[in-house]
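Section 5: illustrative case.
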C-alpha cells in the first residue's frame, strides 16, 4: 500500500541507467516542485490540517511521489476532525487497486476518495461519538490535482493570468439549493431555528440535529440526510503550474476567493498563508477558527535556483512564474467533464447528482477493495 515515507528515511539511490531508462520509457510522471506553508489562529480549537509532501505510491520508488494536503473543521468537539486527520488518507489509499501504473492510479483516485470518505465516516460512527467535521483533501501528483470535499472548507486554484477557480462546492444548506432539495426529498426537514413565538433566526439547518451543513464526516446524531460522500474534482494544471489555497470557513466567511488569491500573489507559500489569515482577521476579527494551507506547484523548468535578487525583484520573479502579470482575476465556473477553464484542463468532476447510486457504488467498492 502506498503511503508516506517514514520520517528520516533516506530514499534508495537508483542506478543512473535505471533513471535514464525511466526517462526514455516516458512513465507519464511530471516533474514539479511543491512548496507549501500554513497558518492559523484558534477560536474554539476545532480546526486541524494535514501536510504530507513525501507520499509514495510505490514503496521505495521516488518516481511515484505525490503530496497530500487537507483541512478539517470540526464541530461539537474535535473527535471527528482528529479521527479524519489520522485515518482518511489511509482509507483512501486502501481503496486504490494494487500494482497499477500512474495513469490508472489517477483514474482510480476519484472513486477511491469517495470510498475513503465513506469508510472514515462508518468507522468514526462506530465509536458512538456525536462530533462531526468538514474535510477537504487535496492530492497533488505532478501537474494533476484531485480534490475531495464535504462541508464548507474550500480549495481554490490560482494560475497564470490571475484566473481563480473554485475546486470545491460549499455544502451549506443556506447557500446550496441543490443540497436543500436532496435533503427534503430524502425526508429531512430544512428550516431555521424556531424561537418562542414562532420567530425564525439563524441559517437554514437540517432537522433532526440542527446542522447547517448537508455533508460531513461524523455527526451520528443528525440522521441519514447528512452524507459523507464528497464532491470530487480532478484537474490538470498548465505547464506554468499554479497555487492552491485550502482553508476553513473562518477564512471564507471573511474574504472572497478572489481576495484571498490577490492579497498573496508573488509571495512565498509560507508568507502567503499568513497574509490570507491576516486579511481574514482584519476583515472580521477572530470569530471562528482560521486555518489556511497554501501550496505552490512549480514545474521543473522553473525550479533552478536563480541568482541572488533583492526581495522586491524576488517577489516579481515568483509572481511572473506562477501567476503572470495581470492584476485582475475572475472566478472560474464549474463545467462539464471535458470543460476547459483558462488553461486548466478538467479531467473529472462528480458532485451531487445520483447520490444514491454513488453511495451504493462506494459501498461495493469498499467491500471489494478495503480490508476489514
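Designed sequence:
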Amino acid at each position: 500500500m502506498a503511503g508516506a515515507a517514514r520520517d528520516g528515511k533516506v530514499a534508495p539511490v537508483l542506478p543512473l541507467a535505471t533513471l535514464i531508462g525511466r526517462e526514455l520509457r516516458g512513465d507519464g510522471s511530471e516533474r514539479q516542485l511543491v512548496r507549501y506553508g500554513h497558518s492559523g489562529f484558534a477560536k474554539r480549537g476545532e480546526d486541524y490540517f494535514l501536510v504530507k509532501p513525501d507520499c509514495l505510491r510505490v514503496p521505495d520508488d521516488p518516481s511515484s511521489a505525490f503530496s497530500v494536503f487537507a483541512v478539517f473543521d470540526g464541530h461539537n468537539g474535535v473527535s471527528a476532525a482528529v479521527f479524519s486527520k489520522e485515518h482518511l488518507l489511509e482509507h483512501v489509499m486502501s481503496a486504490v487497486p494494487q500494482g497499477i501504473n500512474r495513469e490508472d492510479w489517477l483514474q482510480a483516485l476519484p472513486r477511491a476518495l469517495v470510498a475513503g470518505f465513506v469508510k472514515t465516516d462508518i468507522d468514526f460512527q462506530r465509536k458512538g461519538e456525536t462530533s462531526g467535521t468538514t474535510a477537504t483533501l487535496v492530492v497533488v501528483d505532478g501537474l494533476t490535482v484531485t480534490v475531495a470535499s464535504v462541508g464548507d472548507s474550500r480549495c481554490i486554484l490560482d494560475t497564470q493570468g490571475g484566473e481563480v477557480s473554485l475546486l470545491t462546492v460549499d455544502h451549506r444548506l443556506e447557500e446550496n439549493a441543490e443540497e436543500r432539495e436532496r435533503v427534503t426529498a430524502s425526508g429531512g426537514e430544512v428550516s431555521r431555528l424556531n424561537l418562542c413565538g414562532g420567530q425564525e433566526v439563524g441559517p437554514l439547518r437540517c432537522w433532526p440535529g440542527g446542522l447547517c451543513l448537508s455533508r460531513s464526516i461524523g455527526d451520528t446524531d443528525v440522521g441519514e440526510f447528512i452524507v459523507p460522500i464528497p464532491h470530487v474534482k480532478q484537474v490538470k494544471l498548465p505547464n506554468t503550474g499554479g497555487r492552491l489555497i485550502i482553508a476553513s470557513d473562518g477564512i471564507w466567511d471573511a474574504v472572497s476567493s478572489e481576495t484571498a488569491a490577490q492579497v498573496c500573489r508573488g509571495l512565498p507559500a509560507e508568507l502567503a498563508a499568513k497574509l490570507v489569515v491576516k486579511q481574514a482577521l482584519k476583515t472580521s476579527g477572530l470569530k471562528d477558527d482560521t486555518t489556511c494551507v497554501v501550496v505552490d506547484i512549480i514545474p521543473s523548468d522553473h525550479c533552478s535556483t536563480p541568482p541572488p535578487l533583492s526581495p522586491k525583484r524576488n517577489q516579481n520573479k515568483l509572481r511572473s512564474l506562477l501567476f503572470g502579470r495581470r492584476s485582475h482575476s475572475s472566478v472560474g465556473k464549474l463545467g462539464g467533464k471535458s470543460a476547459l477553464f483558462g488553461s486548466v484542463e478538467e479531467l473529472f468532476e462528480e458532485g451531487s447528482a445520483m447520490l444514491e447510486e454513488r453511495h451504493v457504488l462506494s459501498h461495493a467498492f469498499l467491500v471489494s477493495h478495503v480490508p476489514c
